[in-house]
Amino acid sequence: MSEENTILFSDFALAAPLLRSVEELGYESPSPIQAKSIPVLLEGKDVLGMAQTGTGKTGAFALPLLSRIDINLRAPQLLVLAPTRELAIQVAEAMQAYARHLPDFHVLPVYGGQAMEPQLRGLKRGVHVVVGTPGRIQDHIKRGTLKLNQIQAVVLDEADEMLRMGFIDDVDEILSKTPANRQVALFSATMPDQIRRIAQRHLRNPVEIAIKSSTSTVKAINQRYWAVSGMHKLDALTRILEVEEFDAVIIFVRTKVATTELAEKLEARGYAASPLNGDMNQAMREKAIDRLKRGSLDIIIATDVAARGIDVARVSHVVNYDIPLDTESYVHRIGRTGRAGRSGEAILFVAPREKRMLGAIERATGQLITPMRLPSQSDIADKRSAAFKNQISEAMESQDLAFFETLIEEYQSEHDVGLSEIAAALAYLAQKDRPLLPAEIKETAQVGFGDRQDRGQGRDQDRRDEPRRPRQNDDMARVKYRIEIGHEHGVQPKNIVGALANEAGIDSKYIGAIRIFDSHSTVDLPEGMPNEVFTQLKRLHVLGIPLEISEAAPGDSEGERSGNRRPPAGPRKFGPRGGGDSFGGKPRRSKPRS
User: Helicase C-terminal domain location, by residue (predicted)?
Assistant: First the structure.
């Protein structure tokens, strides 16, 4: 798929609610596996796909198969088999996101290591899609709690991993119990003989799709990642821009809206930044790229599609503010730097729940991406001081300072003070709007992703990614919130902690007491969360159920159902120093030039 002839999701005959979700999620063009699989699956044909993790397989089967779901039939119609609980949860979450505009849609992840009771309740209520590990799916079939008679399609995701983990006999048996006329999509990174035999036995004249990775990266590009772990993603970006020696930067985000929002926030911090997205007309896009080339613009915030074809030699850095959806997109992104024989820098922000994609990128490119340390307060102070010294040197070399020398001599004589004191006072006046010594920075603790060999593999079904009870910071002011999920929904504290930490990016040490009642729960969260974090909280789902978070009323803490719920509390002042620019002072107007 060439950059010049881009296929869009709107070119496919997907159901309108799914296309709407795709647009809102910011997915503009399909990955190669999606471009080839979606039309075939929409036609009802079986697919035998060879593709690595991180190529966009979930969208490749979820979008076409969800388009054919009968929402009025509350019975499992789509069954997805995954090798690990991590992948099962990931696929179920993706399904929920794609189907957000399908009314009363239900998807249920089932896997070992989780209590049976919540899964039994979910199946009893009725679901449209079941995503699970083979062993637990077998358990439900034998119990009679999972009926397969209405199954329209079965997906085997990462079939070679299921073979490696000893699940292939379960897979074979499960497939044999599904209706004979069901559709099957089998995806595997490799195609060993046992997988090929499964395909021959259960797939009917499948269309074979093989995606060869073209992800060899430019060796001149230095690739680093930052493990996102707190609530200040924007602060982290600002710190990096403050300290990195950059010429021009392209920052990649997922959605068109995010390009504009982030550009405005960076402009407010004094950076020359502009959005670049598909909603801009060609003239506006060309103007932005021309400004980037000429140096009147330093930073562009772009979506994948909008940035294709950009060839600007002065782009020294690419920042993946939002992790790409597939490895091909990552390579396209970082390929915007390291041009014309120059070296380049690529920085990737990775949340804990995205570590699987980090591992996929490393495997696809054959290169390790090294962790980076965020610049400290001292680093920023050193950088600002060095830039100020350079400004002094440039002024001494290029300006006629005779008048000012006379003025200083007169002041020294009149007030009997030393030249160093006068110089210090003048330096303060020159820099008081942007202090050389920044105000104390709210440090964001970094969370590692464990052993590099394990990262992104999803090997351990019983221990990996199991949320622990939060380690509380008892000195932090908190507010009690009510969420509309409780015992009757099968929720446990770990489900709530996992959603808050992985989806909203709230470090577990900021999460306070959690109490679960029959129909709702309460959770203590930091007072004065940033706007973007609170907005994300209001969109969260746990076990497929929207949280509908609101500030708790007094009766909520005793398990009573309050008849008059208060509206969601807005962000308040966060901690003793409040919000705003965590670097202190007013935003700078242009980046320092060396």
Answer: 233-380
